[in-house]
Amino acid sequence: MLPRQVPLRLPRALVSASPRTRALASDAAAVVLAALDVWLVVPEEPPWYSPWFSWLAVAALLLRRHLPFVTVLLCVPGFFFGWAQLAAMIALGSLAKRELFSWKTAAGALLVCVCRFVLWPWTDFLDLTWKEHILDAMYGVLVAGMPVAIGMLITVRGQLSARIRDLARSQDREKRLHAATVRAAERAKLAREMHDVVSHQVTLIAMQAGALQVSTTDPESREAAATIRALSTQTLEELRELVGVLRSGGDEEEIQPGLDEVDALVHDGVAMTISVDPLSVPAPISRAAYRTVQEALTNVRKHAGGARTSVLVKESDGHLEIEVRNSRPRRRSPGFPSGGHGLLGLRERATLLSGTLDAGPTTDGGYRVIARYPL
């Protein structure tokens, strides 16, 4: 059984911190580690210049993000005459991260390698055997090569991550274009079906209603036929607009009427009061308000002929409130079929927009519909 691999995750505070905060934290950590590297190895009676050069190298790390090559040059004396090895390696890694493989990186790596290979004072260096010289040369290559490799690896990894993000965005764009192409094909197919089937059937209904209006002598039947013909004509107009949108591939929401066009729904016997600016209402809420008034007035025409009707649109407690109220019908309903699907659709629309819709009879024998949508 292999042990379960746990992904390495950075602390949440470090991930959510700003780039400036992370940079300051990185500089502080580098200075602290370099200072510990110097402080823990200082002998009891060092030469007077060695501590000065060592602590100068530690302080120079504060410049490594802005002047990395200068930082390496300031750290070299501290490494050669003192004990600032870690400071020189950190400075060299910052230089490689900024410059990648350039003459500055090569020069800095050579200086750090020489500082690790050559000992000070000279007498100690000359007393070493040839085996110790070979070992020091190997460690010099490692001390200089490891920061260069890490710095270049960090930069290359960042570049690869940026390329991967660009590729991911390109793939997302291709997917969206493919989906748009598929939707356009489906729109065209749906437009053909609607034009060939629905439009033909609605046209026949309008023609039959016109023939009934001319041939009948009953006033109520003639009025019902006129209403059917008018509604069929309006349905054909809306259907043609929708078919045009489907064929053009545009957004059907761009042409749907909103609260600014609700006046077109008003007919004789309807009192309209709008106390809000239609242009200030969000587009989804505006379209929902139009459909609410349209459906309510259609129900009044079908089931409450001759009733006095009022439409009120106002803002109340951060909500857009639409109230459509009608009085008791003055004449008998022509008996249009209704299953309540219109109000059901309005209630579902209101729920999707975090609103509410209430409908029910009033005490005077009328009916009212109240919808509230958050602004």
From TrEMBL:
Catalytic activity annotation: ATP + protein L-histidine = ADP + protein N-phospho-L-histidine
Domain of life: Bacteria
EC number(s) given by UniProt: 2.7.13.3
Alphabetical UniProt keywords: ATP-binding, Kinase, Membrane, Nucleotide-binding, Phosphoprotein, Transferase, Transmembrane, Transmembrane helix, Two-component regulatory system
Gene Ontology terms: cellular component: membrane
Record field: transmembrane: 69-93, 105-122, 137-156
Pfam families: HisKA_3
Molecular function via GO: ATP binding; phosphorelay sensor kinase activity; protein dimerization activity
Domain Signal transduction histidine kinase subgroup 3 dimerisation and phosphoacceptor: 186-249
Descriptive protein name: histidine kinase
Organism of derivation: Actinokineospora fastidiosa
